[in-house]
UniProtKB/TrEMBL annotation:
Similarity comment text for this entry: Belongs to the helicase family. RecG subfamily.
Keyword annotations from UniProtKB, A to Z: ATP-binding, DNA damage, DNA recombination, DNA repair, DNA-binding, Helicase, Hydrolase, Isomerase, Nucleotide-binding
Primary role: Plays a critical role in recombination and DNA repair. Helps process Holliday junction intermediates to mature products by catalyzing branch migration. Has replication fork regression activity, unwinds stalled or blocked replication forks to make a HJ that can be resolved. Has a DNA unwinding activity characteristic of a DNA helicase with 3'-5' polarity.
Protein name per the record: ATP-dependent DNA helicase RecG
Gene: recG
PROSITE patterns, A to Z: HELICASE_ATP_BIND_1, HELICASE_CTER
Keyword Ribosomal protein: no
Length: 702
């Protein structure tokens, strides 16, 4: 063990100022056990007490302010839960109110009339009069000399506060720890990187993240620690990717004659530049002799499926088989029906295997796979069954891959005993570039960022409930033109807590507004049996129903080119990526399509941002970036992936530029020195060696 590891592994019990009881609380409440854990427990914000403001300088936009003044008088008003204590605070430039709703009796006992105080808190104005609710109030006689500065505020639990372990106490303990830790903090980045990005040293960064000398030092400390954390995060992902490429061979698919025959003779439309670029990237992987692991991102309707089919042709033309796995039967059927005409024209055997496939058909499928007569198999989770064995599986395509677990994907890879198949994972959920780098940093990423020719951007509008008759009139016009309409609701049954239109109520009101025999209204939701869903969907596809009232079960993959109107009820209930996915159900044909978002009048600022973004752009990646800023990475992925999402200081929503620089640096260093043996990379090697003893985040100090 190194000296550094020994010091930072010291249990918190040995730190002066804590003691057994406080140590136990930090263990239980915050999962902090060692000096290393505590020193990396970064503040989540800072109280700016670097100066005093006068009352005349106060503004609503200030996050906080510190004012010196006199407490002239105070009084209580209101009854019961509305009872409050109001103090009049003056400083010669004006007067303001200090307001308390809790602990009134105790606070009143501590106040001195005409006493000099320092008040600190968030200023708010009402009718030109400023107030601070629940201010921190300190007597100027007892206020510490070090009151001016930036003070750390830590995320703490109620239990800790009750035991008087607040941010002030943690700050004092942290100062003691930093003083002791100073000689043990080693540099973890090479000089060249520190110079290139003008980063402060590790010691200065650690001191100023907890006890910043001023705003400038705080920003430098944050930038340095964010860069370091993201650098080690990316270094690990890229290293894993390199190991994966070295360890796993892949079949070489050099012969392009089958693909060229399809491309030149049978493809009924011209590929976009983006599609052509992605096919070249995939073909490049097939020539390396290493297993391909590629993520294909493409917005709804961008033409990922035809790219996937062309990749299959490259595999088949070289004597291998391919499979395409989708998360639902509806989507698997759609892929099968979409690709069948192309496969037939090429004389290829295309099969489908889902939960609905009968036993007799399964026997034939299994035999054709094992003999090599089956070229491409499309299916659902049924493809993972042990009975499904291939003669030579060369390519696995996984659609909407976030819906499949790692274990499920690994099962597919093991379907070829000799050489693992190439992997192409596809998603129509646009992932912000920063998130793709961290979530899928060990995959190569291809992006189709161009819509096929002839597709018109979907016109998106926002309407309030009072415009319902106008919206119904527009729906009738579209139906008269032979078009079809989706109407999507967020809830299946009425909730007492939420005042939203539910599906059943909506279905009945649609039937009243669009009565038989002129109109047919269908309904689709998650509680229906699979065959019921399929029947309802087939009726809509065959144009037997003009309006389909549904929940978000139609969110992914359903392709009905004739459906040109999407009405989203209670649109305020949906996230931005979900709204975008729903909108993508229309606009699949050559006709102009429309998305109408219906809401009530009470809208939060985040909701307004979501709706405005939807109206402004059809670009899924721009939408994903806004969504990341609104919701954060954990919410977007639906999973806190260990080692990827457990960032301690960096924020993927805000630190995209730092992440890009960190990734490029990690890539350049590993390209030059994959084993990190060069003398200039000793700080990285030492840091990584220290980390190998633990399961810690690669950005950590020890």
């Amino acid at each position: 063990m190194t000296e550094r590891t020994t010091f930072f592994d010291t249990p918190l019990l040995y730190l002066k100022g804590l003691g057994p009881q406080r140590t136990e609380l930090l263990n239980k409440e915050l999962n902090l056990f060692t000096y290393g854990d505590l020193i990396q427990y970064y503040p989540f914000r800072y109280d700016d007490r670097s100066r005093y403001y006068t009352i005349s300088e106060l503004m609503d936009s200030m996050p906080s302010a510190q004012i010196k003044g006199r407490l002239r008088d105070w009084y209580t008003e209101g009854e019961g839960p509305k009872k409050r204590l109001v103090g009049t605070f003056t400083d010669g430039t004006g007067s303001m109110s200090l307001v308390w709703f809790q602990g009134i009796t105790y606070i009143e006992k501590t106040l001195r009339r005409d006493g000099e105080y320092i008040a600190y808190g968030k200023p708010q104005s009402f009718n030109g009069q400023f107030s601070i609710v629940h201010p921190e109030l300190e007597n100027t006689n007892t206020a510490s000399e070090q009151e001016l500065g930036f003070f750390p505020v830590y995320n703490l639990t109620e239990k800790l506060r009750k035991r008087h372990l607040d941010s002030k106490v943690i700050g004092k303990v942290m100062r003691m720890l930093l003083e002791q830790a100073w000689p043990h903090i080693r540099e973890t980045l090479p000089d060249a990187l520190i110079q290139q990005y003008r980063l402060v040293g590790k010691r200065d960064a650690m001191w100023n993240i907890h006890l910043p000398q001023n705003q400038g030092w705080l920003k430098q400390a944050q930038r340095r620690l964010k860069f370091e954390e993201l650098f080690y995060n990316q270094l690990r992902l890229i290293k894993n990717k390199l190991i994966q490429k070295e360890e796993f061979p892949g079949q070489i698919f050099r012969d392009t004659s089958l693909m060229k025959h399809f491309y030149n003779e049978l493809l009924p439309f011209e590929l976009t530049g983006a599609q052509q670029r992605v096919i070249k990237e995939i073909y490049g992987d097939f020539l390396t002799g290493k297993q391909m692991n590629r993520l294909l991102q493409g917005d709804v309707g961008s033409g990922k499926t035809i790219v996937a089919f062309i990749a299959c042709l490259l595999a088949i033309g070289n004597g291998a088989q391919a499979c395409l796995m989708a998360p639902t039967e509806i989507l698997a059927d759609q892929h099968y029906n979409g690709l069948k005409p192309f496969a037939d024209a090429m004389g290829l055997n295309l099969g489908i295997l889902t939960g609905s496939t009968n036993k007799k058909r399964r026997v034939v499928l299994h035999e054709e796979l094992q003999t090599g007569k089956m070229h491409i198999l499309v299916g659902t989770h049924a493809l993972l069954e042990d009975a499904v064995q291939y003669k030579n599986l060369g390519l696995c395509i996984i659609d909407e891959q976030h819906r499949f677990g790692v274990a499920q994907r690994a099962k597919l890879w093991r379907k070829n005993e000799t050489v693992p198949p190439h992997i192409l994972v596809m998603t129509a959920t646009p992932i912000p570039r920063t998130l793709a780098m961290t979530l899928y940093g060990n995959l190569d990423v291809s992006v189709i960022d161009e819509l096929p020719k002839g597709r018109k951007p979907i016109k998106t509008v926002h309407k309030f409930d009072k415009h319902r008759s106008e919206v119904f009139g527009f729906m009738r016009q579209q139906i008269e033109l032979g078009r079809q309409v989706y109407v999507v609701y967020p809830l299946i049954e009425e909730s007492e807590k939420l005042d939203y239109k539910d599906l059943m109520d909506g279905f009945e009101s649609m039937q009243r507004a669009f009565p038989r025999p002129k109109y047919e209204v269908g309904m689709l939701h998650g509680k229906m049996l699979p065959y019921e869903k399929d029947d309802e969907m087939q009726r809509f596809i065959k144009h037997e129903t003009q309006i389909l009232v549904a929940t978000t079960v139609i969110e992914v993959g359903v392709n009905v080119p004739n459906a040109s109107v999407m009405v989203i009820e209670s649109a305020e209930r949906f996230g931005l990526s979900q709204l975008h996915q729903l909108r993508g159900r229309v606009g699949r044909g050559a006709d102009q399509s429309y998305c109408i978002m219906m809401t009530g009048y009470k809208l939060s600022s985040d909701t307004r941002t979501r709706l405005e973004t939807m109206i402004r752009t059809n670009n899924g990646f721009e939408i994903a970036d806004v969504d990341l800023q609104l919701r954060g990475p954990g919410d977007l992925t639906g999973t806190q992936q260990s080692g990827v999402m457990d960032l301690m200081i960096a924020d993927l929503a805000k630190d995209g530029a730092i992440l890009t620089a960190a990734r490029e640096s990690a890539q350049a260093i590993l390209t030059e020195d994959p084993e990190l043996v060069l003398p200039q990379h000793a700080p990285i090697r030492n840091h990584v060696d220290g980390l190998k003893q633990t399961e810690n985040n690669w950005g950590r100090i020890s």
